[in-house]
Amino acid sequence: QILDCPTMAIQPEFEHEDEWEEFLNKADPRKRVNKNFKEYSWSFGIDEDDEGFTRDCVILEVPTARDTEPRQVSVKLTSKRLSLAVQGKEVINDAFSDERWVSVEDSYWELETKTNKAGERIKNIRYLLYLRMDCTKYITKTLFEQEKQELPAGEDDSDDDTADTRIKMIANLKEPEPRREADVYFSEEEEFSEYECEGCGSKSVNVMKKAEDRSFKVYCNDCPYVSVADMNKEAPSIRRQREIDEARARKKKEKEKKKLAEKLAIQDQVPVDLAELEEVD
């Protein structure tokens, strides 16, 4: 049930580009959804099971003391909730946000030792919670009930990220019209801009060149306003295409400025002097 959306040659209309980009990032199987909390963290993505098959999996990580041994870990997993205690201290005892996804039989935990970003050796519990084979759900919002209750006010707490909703998102996507050159026109009447009065906005006008006129003018039938007629007026489709190109260029420039600001912010951070840290120790 992996939808490799980023490889699809599908382009949305300009107004929906940001929404589509967000969807692609969420649906990219190469990127794991990561959530961090005080007592634990979890991520969702694809992982290989013991038989070498690629499956959707939640990896739950719980930090522990260095001297923790497997016999000091107490775990009870059901389809509805997870209870986990380390050295007699309860770490997790909560119901899942959805009780239909976890495969209790295939899931397992292990103690692992790894090096953190500071170069320290740490130990934690790594619990692999595999999704059931018949589950079409993606765990991208919340894992436990407590997380749902702690969502910021106003944030959508619906958890309907499934294969069906992703397929519908792709199926309902409306692609933009084919790009047109300036000299390409379609035969429908709406492809050509109708003249209107610049004074009152009425479309009841006559475009003509009277004997005393030097050029064609727009004469309004509802008011006395007269204006010079633009005989090289763009078709609506061409004008919209130009406006979108300009808006897309502005958006690209804003993104580049944002990336540059983030890069400069990182460079402005004062680097840590390891020698000073060793002196403090």
Question: Can you give me a brief rundown of this structure?
Answer:
This protein has 281 residues and is α+β, with helices and mostly antiparallel strands. 23% of the residues lie in helices and 25% in strands. It is elongated and about 105 Å long.
What does this structure look like?
By secondary structure, the protein is α+β, with helices and mostly antiparallel strands. Helix content is 23%, strand content 25%. The protein has 5 helices and 11 strands. It has helices at 17-27, 145-149, 163-171, 236-267, 274-280; strands at residues 33-36, 41-48, 54-64, 73-77, 81-86, 89-95, 108-115, 121-130, 205-208, 217-220, 226-228. The strands form 3 sheets. It has a 5-stranded antiparallel beta sheet, with no helix packed on it. Strands 4-5-6 form a 3-stranded antiparallel beta sheet, with no helix packed on it. Strand 4 (73-77) and strand 5 (81-86) form a beta hairpin.
Task: Average the pLDDT over all residues and give the rounded result.
Answer: 82
Largest sheet: number of strands, sense, barrel closure: 5 strands, antiparallel
Q: Counting H and I runs of at least 4 residues, what is the number of helices?
A: 5
Structural class: alpha+beta
Task: Describe the protein's topology.
Elements: H1 17-27, E1 33-36, E2 41-48, E3 54-64, E4 73-77, E5 81-86, E6 89-95, E7 108-115, E8 121-130, H2 145-149, H3 163-171, E9 205-208, E10 217-220, E11 226-228, H4 236-267, H5 274-280
Antiparallel strand pairs: 1-2, 2-3, 3-8, 4-5, 5-6, 7-8, 9-10, 10-11
